[in-house]
Amino acid sequence: YNEYIKRFGCRGMREIDVATPRTYENQGKLFDTLKQIDVENNQIINVRQRRDEAYQALLKMSQEMDKEDAFVHHAKNIQSLLGYREHPKYMLVVMIERMRRHALNIGKAFVNEGRIDSVDDIFSLDISQVTEAQKNSKLDLRSLVRAAMDPVDKVAHIKSWPVIIDSRGKIIRGVRKDNEAEDGTLLGDPISPGIVRGKAKVLKSPYEKPLESGEILVARHTEPSWTPLFINAAGVIMEVGGPMQHGAIIAREYGIPCVSGVENAVQLIKDGDLVEVDGSSGTVKFVVEE
Fold this sequence. Notes:
Elements: H1 2-8, H2 27-36, H3 43-64, H4 68-81, H5 87-112, H6 127-135, H7 141-154, E1 164-165, E2 171-172, E3 185-187, E4 189-192, E5 195-203, E6 216-219, H8 227-230, E7 235-238, H9 246-254, E8 258-260, H10 265-268, E9 274-278, E10 283-286
Parallel strand pairs: 5-6, 6-7, 7-8
Antiparallel strand pairs: 1-2, 3-10, 4-8, 5-9, 9-10
Helix pairs in contact: 3-4
């Protein structure tokens, strides 16, 4: 655990944003997620089984084609090297975390001097303002923070941003043309094939509440920090994201049925609702328990 935190504690939600707290800063949330993982039955174990089955099937095909040596060679290279494609981003996140630590230290000094109200106010200042503040102790940092936060405060009441806003600021709302959905059926886009039933768990952030094994994850969207939740998820429903969205890729990698593009899913689906996710046809059905 300590080694994991040392190497990967720098990661977390919106990890490219220097203002976002890192995993190591609130390890309680991570630990709660770890406790929810069923070590005897989870998607990672299922992935390993499917990978081994697929490997054996492809190996048999290569033997029939007299290409066994080439298959084994290339499969080994792919399995051992493909993970390095993630390494550049990992190093970027490591550097951002180092910058965050430095910024927080400066913020603490400004708080101690009575120049800002919160350590996090440092992230409302740009680099030139911070540099000037370090040289000029009379620079009014509170007014700079208020000016930076003013446009943010004006939209703080918005709970759900439009999916599409064009360059002129026009909000574009699409309307589905397929009107053949039955009562109790929500339409979306097929992302990861398969059909599964389970109780829904609606989350607006990854650590908001526990996702128990076998539940259906319902979210507006996901990003890399949500990945641990997919270990328990039996299926995934999202409002936003196409086939190459991070959650979609993880769902296919884990073999979890997934439907995206389900409008207002987080409002229409409630915790505990029994739903059927069809990741092949892109539908979500409410199931009435008999």
